[in-house]
Structure prediction request, 426 residues.
Amino acid sequence: MVGNINTKRIYKASCVALVVTALTFAIRANLLGVLGEEFELTAMQVGNVAAAAFWGFTGAMVLGGVLCDWIGMGRLFLLAFLGHAIGIVWTIFSSDYWSLFLSTLLVGLANGFVESASYSMLSSIYANDDKTKRINDWHIWFPGGIVIGGVLAYLLSAAGFNWKIQMVVMLIPTLAYGAMFWKQRFPKSERVKLGVSDREMFRACLSPLFLLMLCCMLLTAATELATNQWIVELLSSVGVPSILLLVFINGIMTLGRANARYILQRISVTQLLLVSALLSFAGLQLLGYAQGYLSFVAAAIFAMGICFFWPTMIGFVSENLPKTGPLGLSLMGGAGLFSTALALPWLGQIYDIHLLDALPVGFSIEQLKGSADGAEMQLWAEMKLHAGAYTLRLASVLPGVLVIVFAILHLSRRKRASAKVSTVIQ
Prediction:
């Protein structure tokens, strides 16, 4: 308890809100193919619907950074609650492409307000040298929520429940975090506490280091979120339930983030980012070739790669560029979601193109999709396997670029630190 602010309660409430954000991600990932069939959508259109959540997320993240000090963190969380509640119900009653797209957009806005308000809150209630660890701790609940959502989606699907029931499940934790935040007080942002003016905050967001991290966030987020959102569909023909691969990946991410503080005691933040990029690249390449239960080995490597990307990027900015304030943190998150919104339909388009490339003469996609013939079903599975594998291998270009950038960043930061030590000694 700090003053009249119940820090434990608002922290726990923000964790539940993040679980809802993760559930919207996991359950929708499991439903991409189902929604495509029910609403008769192409993979490109399904990608656009999935991307709508990230367009909303992006807008809310940027808007939240601007609004945080004007309307307060509490009102941002209220906007998140309303967006989740209305958006989920609207999705359940969607009847066509546009209602599905707009309801998903509203849920994305809610997700963005949760993240934007939570980053400002965490930066305000924890010490500067502890921020990266604390943000990793809080972000446990994103992969943790995906594990919960993925298992629920698998069990409900296996039990034959309609996709709308899976959406209804998300209303329970939504109502829970709304009740937990009710009538709570919130701290001022770190930027306000430091006495940094709006002008200084905007200027800090134009510094070379911040702009570099912003560009890197475009690639780290697309590597993690866009690939994870599509992975159930892309790996649907590898011989194991692909929703369980998503659960497996996020289970590893949950364990990794739970131990982030111990890892960061042994290696630097920039070293962690470099290792993450290397493992992400290797994991995607392996996923592009693995089949059957070997897919879990490749998925484990990929999971260890993307595990620390998002919270460590946010933590790096919070610790090294505190003057960027809520705007800087929100711009980082917004950049990540913006790139994901672009990458989702791009991956869908690549998948569509390579499905067509693998289509034998005399057959059509529509014919094979709904076929009950054993030979045609086998052909369709092989086509999906080929197209999904190619898409994942192409996506590995994103962390491949990051390997180079993070290596340069780590070497330059280490050189600067060595120079400071030499100056002190002299």
The radius of gyration is 22 Å. Confidence is low (pLDDT under 50) at residues 421-426.
